[in-house]
Amino acid sequence: AWTHGDPRKVIHPTDSRGQFCGQQGTPNENFCTPEFRSSRKVGFGVGGPMSLVPKSVPAAPPCPPPVQICVSKCPDRYMTYLTAHGNPTSLDYYRNFCTPEFRSSRKTPLEVLKDRECPAMLIPSTPLARRCFPAIQAKKGVIMVGNETTYDDGQGRRRNVTELLEGAKKANVVLETRQLAMKIFEDYTVSWYWIIIGLIIAMVASLIFIVLLRFLAGIMVWVMIVMVILVLGYGIFHCYMEYAKLKGEAGSDVSLTDLGFQTDLRVYLHLRQTWLAFLIILCVLELVIVLLLIFLRKRILIAIALIKEASRAVGHVMSSLLFPLCTFFLLCLCIAYWASTAVFLSTSNEAVYKVFNESSCPFSGHTCKPETFNTSNVTKLCPDAQCLFAFYGGETAYHKYLIVLQFFNVFMFFWLANFVIALGQVTLAGAFASYYWAFKKPDDMPAFPLFSAFGRALRYHTGSLAFGSLVLAIVQVIRVILEYLDHRLKAAENKFAKFLLSCLKCCFWCLEKFIKFLNRNAYIMIAIYGTNFCTSARNAFFLLMRNIIRVAVLDKVTDFLFFLGKLLIVGSVGILAFFFFTQRIKLVQDTAPPLNYYWVPILTVIVGSYLIAHGFFSVYGMCVDTLFLCFLEDLERNDGSAEKPYFMSQNLRKLLKKTNKSQPEA
User: Fold this and answer.
1) H or E stretch including 110?
2) Model's pTM, two decimal places?
3) How many CB atoms lie within 10 A of CB 144?
4) Tens of pLDDT, residues 173-208
5) How far apart (Å, rounded) are the C-alpha atoms in residues 247 and 243?
6) Domain locations along the chain
């Protein structure tokens, strides 16, 4: 790709011969902006189409490709070729927007337009991304092109510019998008420092929340459980009151089976049987939750203790909170490499020229070379044939398999990205495992646990990380291929194929989630024991299966705390940003910057706050998972004797009623 590709095809426009506009060393080095016109359409900057050839002239297939020329500047006035043809001054101006072949004004207008040497009409245009777009704008509800509402059609009639809107619709969308982008950019220029302040507040709030979990985790979990029980209790009370209120009312005793299916769901709320069903369901849920609390209370206490212990571990390895920045930087490199390679691949095509003609010709549609076309037999057999640029493509094996190479590029992106994420996970797991397996915390910990874990991961475990990433990348590429096939088969009417594709997408989605879960725990075992990926994955899986109830409880408790933390941080910072940027805080009302769209900085702060909170909690979540696996290993491998003491904290030992026997004297 890097050998054959040419990113200039994306950045710089080309003319109809495939030559770049404004590039030094080319015939168009002094012409920066292309003006477009098609074989049967008028040149209009890039705007609305008008008939170039009178209807009496038949169109012979194949239709020639759109004509594009490079110009030094976009047209700034209305003008038709019929008007310019009889005026030397106007014709000199019009010549700037004609092809280089246009040399003489001796041809009739019909011949010039038929030969596609000049556009039939010029429209005031504005440059955007090195291309000319119609200067369409609305002033006080009046549609204008340039500064006029009408134009001369070349036959002495004035027409309304609204007739151009249909043809220039897509170009108008581009211009409106540009105006919107400019306003958003202006908002960022006046509010960027306030956005940074909002993100700093989110960072501080995330750090405070993690520190407070050491003291408030138990309270927050039990308050959540009590609130769930109370909400369900109120639901039971409300359903009973509604059930009792409907007693004796006409039509309320109709059964659900007799009523059948109704599109208006409010009809069911007038039936006693509906509220009775709700009442039974809520009572069953309430009973199940109460029974689970009774039987799982000890496991919930263990989960709370592990969360508190994770907060202490993060406090001893504070540098871990900044480590996601390293992962983010490496991911940016992966994305940049993938994107640049994809651009080089997509621009690897060569300029393809084909034969176009107005009359029947046996060579019509054949490929040709402009350098030798005039001396070939084609011009002798078909005098009106032209060798024109058709598209970018190629006939070699490399060009035929570009889509395969793109899929391979996507596969390598997934592999590299998953490797970077795995490197971050095994580094954090190694740092937090060194905290757990330190008998005297934190005295027995390494001086720099995060850097030590990072060095071990790079030196000993790159093969395991690459293999685990490979397995996940294969599944992800299969999912991409399925999505691609689904997109291609959208117009198909084969319901069985669609059903089969949907089932496959669902299965591979579940498989990807399972592999991510397994990989995460395998990397923790790699960080603890240094075993290879397959051994670590097997040991982690069976260890978790032997403690499946503890896994489920800890998972749900931590999910709740992380959800609550993200909601609290993003919600509070978002509300603060809303009141500040909408100037509703009187103390700083004059400080807030004037904005075109106040939602621009607010959304930026909300999204940024979520990403910051997610980064902090991802570290915390990795810490909880690592300590949990270490805790399970500790329980299975040690017995509290002097030879095999427990490494868990005193709080966990007290909760489990475990003790360490005193060490034997030397």
Assistant:
1) helix 109-114
2) 0.74
3) 16
4) 666 777 788 888 888 888 888 889 999 999 898 888
5) 7
6) 31-42+64-164, 190-255+268-342+401-656, 350-393
